[in-house]
Write a structure and sequence with these properties.
By secondary structure, the protein is of the alpha/beta class. It is built from eleven helices and 13 strands. The strands form four sheets. Strands 3-2-1-4-5-6-11 form a seven-stranded parallel sheet, sandwiched between helices.
Length: 332
């Protein structure tokens, strides 16, 4: 598994995975990325040029995808439109990239007999009540809520169908909410950190009681690497690090880190169809493949992430004003 094609490798989690590979393996990587608004070339800065290269292109274009797939051992498929709020204002790109793009990759790995690992999300399972004792498992029925999660559910179903119908060698992982360096400031944690750096107030959708199950992007990367090496073809693995927190708790941890009062935030317009709670049981991955997360303490990972955004203002600053204007226009 020496030559990996990593789609979406200039985005948040994909770039963290490429950094992980450079640090922990001897793999060579080609990143295939369209460089949408969510990507940044800088997230790949400093990586060894003899081991990492970037091809700018669209995963929904078979003329781009096919020769690259033919030339690599494994495809690790991160590329997607990833932000729920954007899928509520303009769902079209989500269907094109997440569904048609995954179809294009599947046809290519089928044609060339290559291995695929498909990166997906816990959101395909819908949401849980706050007091539900259950967590998502690999057996939880699909029940997506938003255009984003429905498009990811669709892509998962395509992968499963290509495994069953055509014998494609593929695995799927469904992970919970990631945090860490290089995350676009439209997302919850970096939006609030950069608001506070700017002297502004965090913005909580609704009452702020929605729960997300946070995992550091490094732990997501180590889980994917474990599945690539140990996972069984056709199987799905849930990835999570027991990091459940409600949004209010996360905002108050951020405020505390900056020495600001615990009530120094705004409640803003809630997200339409807002999922209440996600929670992952990653027992299969831990028991069958022996994986465990390194960031056992969310507070420690959050502190390091805050430090990263403080030190990398030049990376996020160019996007801040436009991102906030778009939110303000929606009352968020
Ligand atoms: P991101 O938005 O930060 O990055 C997505 C990357 O895909 C960008 O670099 C973008 O340019 C690229 N891309 C988009 N459309 C493309 C196209 N048509 N062709 C080629 N490249 C394209 O997203 P992320 O948060 O890093 O998420 C990566 C993957 O992980 C997605 O599949 C997402 O569904 C999944 N996921 C994300 C999370 C999370 O918390 N962010 C959790 C679980 C799963
Ligand atoms: O669960 C995995 C999913 O996590 C991934 O599949 C998605 O790609 C990823 O974006 C993330 O989805 P969420 O919608 O959970 O993440 P987001 O960062 O947009 O929001 C996290 C929570 O914070 C959610 O309950 C909405 C809330 N929120 C978000 C923003 C941007 C706020 O309260 N205020 C905000 O300003």
């Amino acid at each position: 598994m020496n030559r990996l094609l990593v789609t979406g490798g200039a985005g948040f989690i994909g770039s963290n995975f490429v950094h992980f590979l450079m640090e922990h393996t001897d793999a060579r990587v080609t990143v295939l990325d369209k460089l949408t608004y969510a990507a940044s070339r800088e997230s790949l800065d400093g990586l060894p040029a003899d081991r990492v290269s970037l091809v700018v292109g669209d995963i929904a274009d078979p003329d781009v995808v096919d020769p690259l797939v033919a030339d690599h051992d494994v495809v690790v498929h991160y590329a997607a439109e990833s932000h729920n709020d954007n899928s509520l204002t303009d769902p079209g790109p989500f269907i094109r990239t997440n569904v048609l793009g995954t179809f294009t990759i599947l046809e290519s790995v089928r044609r060339h007999g290559k291995r695929l690992h498909h990166i997906s999300t816990d959101e395909v399972y819908g949401d849980l009540e706050v007091d539900d004792p259950e967590r998502f498992t690999e057996a939880t029925p699909y029940n997506p809520s938003s255009p984003y999660s429905a498009s990811k559910a669709g892509s998962d179903h395509l992968v499963r169908a290509w495994v069953r119908s055509f014998g494609v060698h593929a695995t799927i992982s469904n992970c919970s909410n990631n945090y860490g360096p290089w995350q676009h400031i439209e997302k919850f944690i970096p939006r609030q950190i950069t608001n506070v750096i700017d002297g502004g107030r965090p913005k909580l959708y609704g009452a702020g009681l929605n729960v997300r199950d946070w995992i550091h992007a490094d732990d997501h990367s180590s889980a994917v690497w474990t599945i690539l090496n140990e996972g069984k073809s056709g199987q799905t693995y849930l990835i999570g690090a027991d990091g459940e927190r409600n949004n209010l708790e996360v905002v108050q941890l951020i405020l505390e880190a900056f020495g600001r009062p615990a009530d120094d935030f705004d409640h803003v317009t809630d997200r339409a169809g807002h999922d209440m709670r996600y929670a992952i049981d990653s027992g299969k991955l831990r028991t069958e493949l022996g994986w465990k997360p390194q960031y056992a303490d969310f507070g420690e990972g959050l502190t390091r992430t805050i430090a990263w955004y403080r030190e990398h203002e030049a990376w996020w600053r160019p996007h801040k004003q436009q991102t906030e204007l778009a939110y303000a226009a929606k009352g968020q």
